[in-house]
Design a protein that fits this description.
The complex is a heterodimer of chains A (500) and B (425). Chain A has 500 residues and is an alpha/beta fold. Helix content of chain A is 55%, strand content 11%. The longest helix of chain B is centred in the middle third of the chain and has 35 residues. The two termini of chain B are 70 Å apart. Classes of the chains: A alpha/beta (500), B alpha/beta (425). Strand 1 of chain A pairs parallel with strand 1 of chain B, so a sheet runs across the interface.
Chain lengths: 500, 425
C-alpha cells in the first residue's frame, strides 16, 4: 500500500510537485474540469507580499499605493497579525499560480488542487469571465501598460503621472461597463450614428423652431443634455470628453479602465469562485486518498487547513468580519451535490429541477451560468441556511433599533436568501453614480448624479473624490444625490476653491 | 502539461520602487504639515505640543462608498436565540458596518488607518531637521569654562587622601596568595612526612627529622618576610576633571512696540521668538528668557506684557540694547550662560540713534553673545537701522544674522536660513 504513496515527508521537491500535478490533472479530467494550461511558480514570502501589493498581478506599473499596501501587509505579517495566503492565482492563459516556498508538501498539493484546477476551471468556464475578460491578452496588456506608464513618467515627471493615476484609482469602480461588453464600433454603426446626427441637425435647423418664443429656451437646453444618456462609466466619459487632457493622460485613463474591467467579474463571483475551488480541492484530494496515493497524515494536515479556511466565526465572535465567502461557497456546492444524490422532501419541494439529477452536471451548470447574486438566489438551500444559522438584520436610519427581519425558519428562508443575494449585488454595494450633464455652452460644469438606493447616502470621502474628478475634468464639478426624484444633498468642487 | 517555474531567485524586491514612492510621500507630508503648523497655528498651540494630524488626504485612496444611513439589510451567520421580529439595540460606534463587510480579507479594503499623528517631540524633530545651533559645538569644545570632577577608575599613584583602602588590601591579599602558595604547599608536605615518622613504630631516622625541621623553619621564615602590604598594592581613586558644557542659555527677546508696529507685525515677531525658544529648549537644559520691549525707553517685562500689551510712541532702539547689555552684565555672565539675542523690529528708528546702536553692539554686546539675530518685519524698503546693522554683520559674520520677513509664511524659511547647519570648518 505504502509503495503507492506519492510522498511521505513534509518536504516538497519539484519532482513531487510535478507528480502531484500529474495525478490531479488526471482526476480533474475525470470530473470534466476544463482548464487553461497551468504555469506553477514557486516564490518566497517576500515575493508573495510583492504580489499582494500589486493586486496579485505578476507585473504591474509602479504606484505609491502599491507600496503602501506592501508596507501594510508586511507590518501585519511581521507582527503576526495575519498569515499570507497560501496561493495567488491569476486569470490568464496560461493560468499562473504562485506557490510559497514555505508551504509543506501537503499544502502545495492542496494549493495545486485549489488554484490550478479549481480556480483555473472557474476562470475558463464561468460566463462572466468568458464575456468580460480576455485571459489571453491580460499579461501582454499589463506589460504594455507598465512600459507606457514608465515612459510617461520619464517624459512628464512622476508627479504628473501620479496625479492622474490617483484619480483613476479612485474612480476605478466607476470605470466599468456593467451592461455591455465594450467593443470597437463597427464602421456600419459609426455611419448610422453619423446619419442620426445629421438628421438631428436637420431637424433643429428647421425654420419652425426659430419662431418659438425665447422663454422656452431653457426647456430646449435641457433636451440637449450632454451626454444624451447618462453615462455610468465615469472613466470612459472622462477619457473621451475631458476638455483639457493630453493624449497620454487619456491613455492612462484608458489603462485604468481596462484593468478595472478585468477585475470586474472577480468582484462579482467571489463566493462562487472560492466555493468552487474549495469544493474541488476537497474532492480531488479525497479521491487521491481513496486511491491510496496519499497517507493518513497527509489527509489530517489537509483537513486541518481545509477546515480553518472554511471556518465561519459566528456574528458575535471577535473574529467575525462578515460572511466568509469560502464557507458559503463551499457549503453551497457541497449541498448541491447532496441535493442531487440524496434529496429530502424539502429539497424536492425547493429544488424540484435538480433533486436527483446528476451532481457533476449540476455543479458544472451552476458554475458556468451564475454570478454570486444569482447563484445564491438560485441555489441557497434551507439546509445551508440552517447549518450556517443565517439571519437577516434590518438597519433603518429612521428607527432607533435594529430589527431581526427574518431567520432560518420556514417563513424566513426566502427573505434571508433574498437579502443575502442582494448583499452580493454589486449594484447595491456600490453607489450608483452617473454622468448626468455637462454645461457645454457655459462654464463646462460637469454634473454627476448619485441615485440613492434605499435612502443610503454617499460616504464621507465624496469631497475627496470630487477633487480627483476635478483634477481630470479641470472645470467645475458637482454631484447631486437623488432620492425619489429630488436632490437631497450635493457637493461642488470648483477650480477657484482649489487655488485658495 | 503544467509548467513549473522556480521564481525564488529573480524578481525580488519588485515593489521597492513603490515602497520608496510611498515613503517619500509620507515624509513630504510630515514636513509639509509641520511647516504649515508653524506658519498657521497660534503659538500656544505649538508650545503645548498638541498632536499634529497629518492629513491623509493624498495618502488615502478614496472610493465612492455608501455612507451611513438609509435602509439596508444584512445577513449574518451564527444565530443563537433571535427570532424574526426581535429588536436589538443599535450597537454604538455606528451600526452600519457597511455592506462592504462581505469582502473582508480580500483586498486592501478598510486600510485607512494609515493616517498617523506625530507627537510634540516628533513635530519639533521635523521642525528642527537639519538645524544646528550656531557655534554650539565650538562653545562646547573650545570655550570651556566649567569643569566637573568625576571618578574615573583607579590609579597606582596619588595623594594619600585619595587612597582606596578596599582596593589596596584586596590587591595585597592577592599578591600574598600568589607569592606564598608554593612555599605553603611544601611546608604542608614536610609537616605530614614529619608526623608520619613520629607516629610510625619503626626506628625514627633522627637525621631526617632534623633535616625536615630545618627546612620547615626556613620556609616559615621566608613566609614571614613576605610583606603584608607593599607599595605597589596601593590603589588610589582616580579623579579627572571633565569639561562640562555650559547647559544654561538665556534668550533675550527684544522687540519694538512703538506705534509703527502693528499687531500683525507683532504676531510675526512672536512666531519668530517662539521658534527660537523651542529650538533652544531642545539644546539646553535650562533656559531663561528675558523679554525687553522698547519704544523710546526700554523695559523688561514678562511674557504676557511683552506680546499682548499695547504701547505707542517713538522708537529709540539703543535704549533696548543698553538694557540688554546691563542685564547681561548684572545677571548673565558669559562664562556661565550661552547668550542669544533675538531682535524684531519694523526697521523704524530715530534717525540719530542707529549709529549708537552699532556702537553698543560692536563694543559691548557682540563679544558676549553666542548669536545675535535681527529680523526686520516689513514689506517696505530697508530703513537706516538695517544699513547700520549690515556693517555689524560684516564684522561678526559667525555671530550675527539679519533677515527680512514680509509675510507669515516667510518666518519659517527665514528661521531655517538663520540657523542653517554650519559646517564644521
Amino acid at each position: 500500500m505504502s509503495s503507492q504513496l506519492i510522498s511521505s515527508g513534509p518536504e516538497w521537491t519539484f519532482e513531487l510537485i510535478q507528480e502531484y500535478d500529474r495525478e490531479l490533472a488526471r482526476l480533474a479530467d475525470r470530473f470534466r474540469l476544463e482548464t487553461y494550461p497551468n504555469q506553477i511558480e514557486i516564490i518566497s514570502s517576500e515575493q508573495m507580499m510583492d504580489a499582494y501589493a500589486s493586486t496579485g498581478m505578476p507585473l504591474m506599473y509602479n504606484h505609491w499605493s502599491f507600496g503602501k499596501h506592501f508596507l501594510h501587509t508586511q507590518q501585519n505579517y511581521q507582527r503576526g497579525r495575519m498569515g499570507l495566503a497560501y496561493e495567488i492565482v491569476i486569470n490568464s492563459n496560461p493560468c499562473i499560480a504562485y506557490l510559497m516556498e514555505e508551504n509543506t508538501m501537503t499544502m502545495q498539493a492542496l494549493v495545486l488542487a485549489h488554484a490550478s484546477y479549481g480556480h483555473n476551471s472557474f476562470f475558463k468556464g464561468n460566463y462572466l469571465f468568458q464575456t468580460w475578460t480576455d485571459a489571453e491578452s491580460i499579461i501582454d496588456y499589463l506589460l504594455f501598460a507598465k512600459h507606457y506608464i514608465a515612459e510617461c513618467e520619464e517624459k512628464y515627471g512622476i508627479e504628473a503621472v501620479e496625479e492622474i493615476l490617483d484619480a483613476c484609482h479612485a474612480l476605478m469602480n466607476q470605470g466599468v461597463n456593467r451592461y455591455k461588453r465594450p467593443r470597437p464600433l463597427s464602421a456600419e454603426q459609426e455611419q448610422a450614428r453619423q446619419e442620426e446626427r445629421a438628421e438631428y441637425i436637420q431637424r433643429t435647423l428647421n425654420d419652425i423652431w426659430t419662431t418659438i418664443p425665447k422663454v422656452e429656451k431653457d426647456e430646449q437646453e435641457q433636451e440637449e443634455r450632454f451626454p444624451e444618456d447618462p453615462e455610468e462609466n465615469l472613466l470612459y466619459f472622462l477619457e473621451k470628453n475631458a476638455p483639457l487632457l493630453e493624449t497620454w493622460q487619456r491613455e492612462l485613463l484608458r489603462i485604468a479602465r481596462k484593468i478595472a474591467q478585468y477585475y470586474y467579474p472577480q468582484k462579482q463571483t467571489q463566493v462562487m469562485n472560492e466555493g468552487w475551488a474549495c469544493f474541488w480541492h476537497y474532492h480531488l484530494l479525497h479521491e487521491l486518498y481513496n486511491e491510496g496515493k496519499v497517507s493518513d497524515g497527509f489527509m489530517l494536515e489537509f483537513l486541518h487547513s481545509h477546515s480553518s479556511v472554511i471556518y465561519q466565526p459566528p456574528f458575535d465572535s471577535p473574529q467575525y468580519s462578515g460572511i466568509n465567502p469560502y464557507t458559503l461557497g463551499f457549503n453551497m456546492f457541497m449541498d448541491i451535490r447532496r441535493i442531487c444524490e440524496n434529496p429530502t422532501d424539502e429539497d424536492r419541494e425547493w429544488f424540484g429541477d435538480i433533486a436527483g439529477s446528476d451532481w457533476l452536471d449540476t455543479v458544472h451548470f451552476a458554475m458556468k451560468n451564475f454570478k454570486d447574486e444569482s447563484f445564491i438566489l438560485q441555489f441557497l438551500s434551507p439546509k445551508v441556511m440552517r447549518d450556517l444559522r443565517l439571519f437577516s438584520i434590518l438597519d433603518d436610519e429612521s428607527r432607533s433599533y435594529l430589527e431581526v427581519d427574518s431567520i432560518h425558519d420556514e417563513t424566513g428562508y426566502k427573505a434571508v436568501r433574498e437579502s443575502l443575494a442582494a448583499q452580493y449585488n454589486l449594484g447595491n454595494r456600490e453607489p450608483n453614480i452617473q454622468v448626468y450633464n455637462v454645461n457645454v455652452r457655459g462654464d463646462r460644469m460637469l454634473t454627476l448624479r448619485h441615485y440613492q438606493h434605499q435612502g443610503r447616502p454617499l460616504g464621507k470621502e465624496t469631497d475627496e473624490l470630487l477633487k480627483h474628478i476635478h483634477r481630470i475634468w479641470q472645470f467645475d464639478v458637482e454631484i447631486e444625490s437623488f432620492e425619489n426624484g429630488a436632490v437631497t444633498q450635493s457637493w461642488q468642487c470648483s477650480g477657484n476653491k482649489k487655488q485658495k | 502539461m503544467s509548467i513549473i517555474i522556480d521564481r525564488r531567485l529573480n524578481g525580488k524586491n519588485k515593489s521597492t520602487v513603490n515602497r520608496q514612492r510611498f515613503l517619500e510621500r509620507y515624509k513630504k507630508h510630515i514636513k509639509k504639515a509641520v511647516s504649515d503648523a508653524v506658519n498657521k497655528r497660534s503659538i500656544t498651540d505649538v508650545v503645548s505640543g498638541s498632536e499634529v494630524t497629518i492629513p491623509r488626504k493624498d495618502l488615502s485612496e478614496p472610493l465612492f462608498r455608501h455612507g451611513q444611513g438609509g435602509r439596508y439589510k444584512q445577513v449574518h451567520p451564527g444565530n443563537k436565540e433571535f427570532v424574526s421580529g426581535d429588536r436589538i439595540k443599535r450597537p454604538s460606534g455606528g451600526g452600519g458596518s457597511g455592506s462592504g463587510k462581505g469582502k473582508a480579507g480580500n483586498s486592501g479594503e478598510g486600510m485607512d488607518e494609515f493616517s498617523f499623528q506625530i507627537n510634540h517631540d516628533e513635530f519639533l524633530e521635523h521642525m528642527f531637521d537639519n538645524l544646528e545651533l550656531p557655534n554650539l559645538v565650538r562653545k562646547q569644545l573650545e570655550d570651556m569654562t566649567e569643569f566637573k570632577i568625576r571618578q574615573a577608575g583607579y590609579t597606582t599613584a596619588g595623594s594619600p587622601d585619595r587612597l582606596n583602602v578596599v582596593r589596596s588590601l584586596r590587591s595585597a591579599h592577592a599578591r600574598r596568595i600568589a607569592l606564598s602558595g608554593g612555599d605553603r604547599r611544601e611546608i604542608r608536605a614536610l609537616k605530614k612526612e614529619l608526623r608520619e615518622m613520629e607516629v610510625s613504630p619503626d626506628e625514627t631516622d633522627q637525621q631526617r627529622v632534623s633535616e625536615l625541621r630545618e627546612r620547615i623553619k626556613e620556609l616559615n621564615g621566608k613566609l614571614k618576610r613576605l610583606p603584608f602590604i607593599d607599595d605597589f598594592d596601593l590603589k588610589y581613586n582616580n579623579m579627572v576633571k571633565v569639561p562640562s558644557p555650559s547647559n544654561k542659555a538665556v534668550m533675550f527677546c527684544v522687540m519694538d512696540v512703538s506705534g509703527s508696529m502693528t499687531q500683525d507685525i507683532k504676531d510675526m515677531a512672536k512666531r519668530f521668538f517662539i521658534l527660537l525658544y523651542l529650538f533652544l529648549q531642545r539644546n539646553y537644559k535650562e533656559i531663561e528668557v528675558v523679554f525687553i520691549r522698547h519704544h523710546t525707553a526700554a523695559k523688561e517685562v514678562d511674557e504676557d506684557d511683552f506680546f499682548y500689551s499695547r504701547e505707542t510712541g517713538g522708537t529709540i532702539v539703543s535704549s533696548a540694547l543698553e538694557m540688554t547689555r546691563d542685564v547681561i552684565n548684572k545677571r548673565y555672565s558669559p562664562a556661565d550662560w550661552n547668550i542669544y539675542v533675538a531682535q524684531a523690529s519694523d526697521g523704524d528708528n530715530w534717525e540719530g540713534d542707529s549709529s549708537v546702536c552699532t556702537k553698543i553692539l560692536t563694543e559691548q554686546i557682540m563679544q558676549k553673545v553666542q548669536y545675535y539675530c535681527y529680523v526686520e518685519i516689513t514689506d517696505r524698503a530697508h530703513q537706516n537701522l538695517w544699513r547700520e546693522y549690515q556693517s555689524v554683520a560684516e564684522k561678526f559674520k559667525d555671530h550675527f544674522a539679519m533677515q527680512q520677513i514680509k509675510s507669515p509664511s516667510d518666518i519659517y524659511p527665514v528661521f531655517r536660513k538663520l540657523f542653517e547647519k554650519k559646517e564644521n570648518a
